[in-house]
Specification:
seven-stranded parallel β-sheet, binds NADP nicotinamide-adenine-dinucleotide phosphate, single chain, 12 helices
């Protein structure tokens, strides 16, 4: 049987990289999209076909989509760096990619958005994702929506480590706020499962959470991981609050925890996934010995 071909954007990054690896591991053929093929040599080594293309301009997309059974669409406001988010660019990437899929008649599109991108979170960070989600519906594409929670990997990455090494975990919310978390590797598995389920996954929104912890507890866990005490400090910065939105006070924290646990169980059951817990993620992530990238 011919191998099924999937086009994966963002393949040189965290999510797309995880999707490409999961698809390859399951025996599928992957076209890894990048603006610069030189960045994708490790994917080529893993067996992916590296194709050059740009989601902003649409360059290379018609050729890359030819014969592809699925398209994993990853958009980002950080294409000019984390210090300069460009939400118009993210909308443009979404428009260009989704319209190209429509024109090509791609049989299955998976759009990666974010947990809070419901359009009513009040967080400016998610407006461009909400716009792309709306377009997905307007174009009536055969599609699945992934909404990953905050990446566990953020906290063990180079920028997360810098703060942990100074003994502080900081976020613009009170310490008892429960944060939903997902391991990036699980995003790859979820996308691969949705592609394999094909039409059975059309119209589905997959909220991807593998665990939840309060910010205070996360500081404690990250402290044991890094081998020093880490305290949580709420970040007081109006700009961060505008970006992330306001976290409403929860009247029954235990009921909130149980509700999240129930949704993780049903996520695992529906998609045949095994979601990684934060403790397992930390236990399997080596602590870098220097300030170099995690
Ligand atoms: N961090 C979190 O906790 C979290 C949680 C939920 C959602 N998100 C969302 O996840 C997204 C970022 O995903 P990530 O962390 O996996 O990305 P990443 O590691 O930062 O990598 C970005 C990827 O986007 C590609 N890219 C950028 N501009 C492009 C363009 N114009 N055309 C084609 N490809 C382009 C890059 O490819 P080349 O440079 O090779 O072209 C690269 O592969 C953001 O939208 C973020 O809001 C993040």
């Amino acid at each position: 049987m011919a191998r099924r071909v999937f086009l994966v954007s963002g393949a040189t990054g965290k999510q797309g990289g995880a999707v490409a690896r999961s698809l390859l591991k399951r025996g599928h053929a992957v076209r890894a999209l990048t603006r610069d093929a030189a960045k994708a040599s490790n994917l080529r080594t893993l067996g992916a076909d590296v194709v050059e293309g740009d989601l902003r301009t649409g360059k290379g997309l018609p050729e890359a989509l030819k014969g592809a059974e699925g398209f994993f669409v990853l958009t980002t406001p950080y294409d000019k760096g984390y210090d300069a988010p460009d939400f118009e660019s993210e909308k443009r990437q979404g428009r260009t990619a989704l319209r190209a899929a429509k024109t090509a008649g791609t049989p299955h599109v998976i759009l990666s958005s974010a947990t809070a991108a419901t359009g009513d979170s009040g967080a400016s960070l998610f407006e461009s994702k909400a716009a792309n989600e709306r377009l997905l519906v307007e174009l009536a594409l055969p599609a699945t929506l992934l909404r990953p929670a905050t990446f566990m990997d953020n906290f063990t990455s180079a920028w997360g480590l810098e703060s942990l090494r100074a003994g502080v975990l900081s976020f613009p919310a009170p310490p008892e706020t429960r944060m939903e978390l997902v391991a990036v590797g699980d995003i790859g598995e979820a996308a691969a499962a949705a592609f394999e389920q094909g039409p059975r996954s059309f119209g589905a929104t997959i909220d991807l959470t593998g665990d939840s912890q309060t910010l205070q507890e996360m500081a404690r866990m990250l402290g044991s991981w890094i081998g020093r005490s880490v305290r949580f400090e709420p970040e007081v910065d109006p700009e961060s609050t505008e970006r992330f939105g306001v976290f409403p006070a929860v009247s029954d924290p235990e009921a909130e925890r149980r509700e999240i646990e129930r949704s993780i169980e049903s996520l695992e059951k529906r998609w045949g996934l095994h979601m990684t817990r934060f403790s397992t993620f930390l236990a399997s992530t080596p602590v870098p010995r220097t300030g170099a990238d995690a």
